[in-house]
Amino acid sequence: MLDMNTKKFTLWVLAWPIFIELFLQFLLGAVDTLMVSRISDDAVAVVGFSNQLFQAMTVLFTTVASGAGILIAQKLGSHKKLDARVIGIMAFTVTTILGAICSIILIASPQKIAMVLQLPEHLLPLAGIYISIVGGGMILIAMMATMSTVIRNTGNTKGPMYVALGMNVIHVFLNYAFIFGAFGFPQWGLTGVAISTVASRLLAVILLLLMFLRSFEYRIKWRELTVFHRPLFGEILKIGWPLGVNMSCWVFSQLIIYSYIATLGAAELAARTYMNTLESFCFLLGSSIATAAQIQIAHLFGAGRVREAYRSAYRALGIGAIYVVVNALILFVFGRQLLGLFTDDQTIIAIGASLLGMNLILQPGKMLNMALGNSLNAIGDTRFTMYISLGSMWIIATGMSYVLGIHLGFGLIGIYSCMIVDEYLRGILSYVRWRGQKYLRKAEAAKQQKPDGMTVEPAVVI
Asked: pLDDT tens digit string along 336-348?
């Protein structure tokens, strides 16, 4: 368990396993993109488009998982270990059910969903195959997301990292085997990539489940997975639903933006997919620092160490900003060569290269937004981040993207400009909110007025 009184639980100690895990997830996506590019650029466009669709559907269960993660960190910080345990169990059960529903929907109507989202008609057959197979495994994504979140927020950030390593090794091996027909495997192209994705995630679920059952002081038993504690679930939703709205704003706005890009053509869609891969690498360390800061701040806040929690946000922002700027500079200098690793199409490379300078401006804004936004979420101020996301993402990132990118004909340049403005606006507003400390002081005062708090008795005999 995470003990904030010990020096070994510093921001970096929490962050580096998260970074390795995110890097491995990035590697999974990059290898997917690189290997799929050997099939065709159309296949790459389908994978990039489908992944945006999958992210949109994950909002249903990440709402619960994210809220549960913050609450677990807070409860452990205030030594309410049984509460934290019940929260973890409920989050896993509910999100697994939601993931199963998503799987059924995507298996039933993959091409119809792609048509509604304006995917070019000639890509529909490939999309139908990929969405039905990978989307059919949404239940695995739900289970992975929740178990990883629960495990990380108990202080064990290394466990999910090791699982990510194993998943990547299996996925890369199976990708190579199915795409090129190596080692006696059939040469199944994009279908093989989809099967490889599901198989590697199934392995990850098995390993994470073994960790999850042992992630608290008392081992979770199978019969406890039916436990439901209404007051604690209400706490999850109180924090989680604004997070879900916030996340859905981002995911659905990105999905709509992808549909805008799809109307520009398959080359633009493929270029955006390749750039998304490179940008993800650029922001990996910044994202891991912001995630670690959220865990640290939630624990400190739960333990009543408000001043330390307040300062931790700025420290995470300063460290993260340095790393993302350096990474963005490297990408700016070598971006064209990196794009050349994915495709030989000079049109796609030229489109991607035209966005490298804009990415250099974008990344510091993302770090500002994520570091301060995560800090606000860690203390339960999730409604503020929801409100600014509703306004900024829909009016600027989505609405203005259509005006500049499609209506006025500026294409990807216009869309990227709106994404930059959106990130900086939300980041600045989050900074002002955190600097004012209004919610921080209010929450601390309320905490001091309450008794030590409820400790939930085990729902079953342990």
From this structure: 888 888 788 888 8
CB of 388 closer than 8 Å to CB of 305: no
How many alpha carbons lie under 13 Å from residue 117 in its C-beta half-sphere? Answer: 30
Give me the phi and psi of 380, to 5 degrees please. Answer: 95, 5
Reading the block at residue 147, the tokens are: 């178990």
DSSP labels for 102-169? Answer: HHHHHHH-HHHHHHHTT--GGGHHHHHHHHHHHHTTHHHHHHHHHHHHHHHHTT--HHHHHHHHHHHH
Tell me whether residue 71 is exposed, middle or buried, using C-beta atoms within 10 angstroms of its C-beta: 0 to 12, 13 to 18, 19 or more.
buried
What the block records as the tokens of 171 is: 């996925």
Query: What residue segments make up the domains of the chain, in order of their start?
Result: 11-446
Report the C-alpha dihedral over residues 273, 277, 279, 283, rounded to 10 degrees.
140
Secondary structure (DSSP) of 219-287: PPPGGGGG---HHHHHHHHHHHHHHHHHHHHHHHHHHHHHHHHHHH-HHHHHHHHHHHHHHHHHHHHHH
Contact 359, 332 (CB under 8 A): yes
- Judged by DSSP in three states, 79 sits in coil
Residue 453 has pLDDT above 50, yes or no: no
Question: Which amino acid would we find at residue 391?
Answer: G
User: Where residue 133 falls among pLDDT bands split at 50, 70, 90?
Assistant: very high
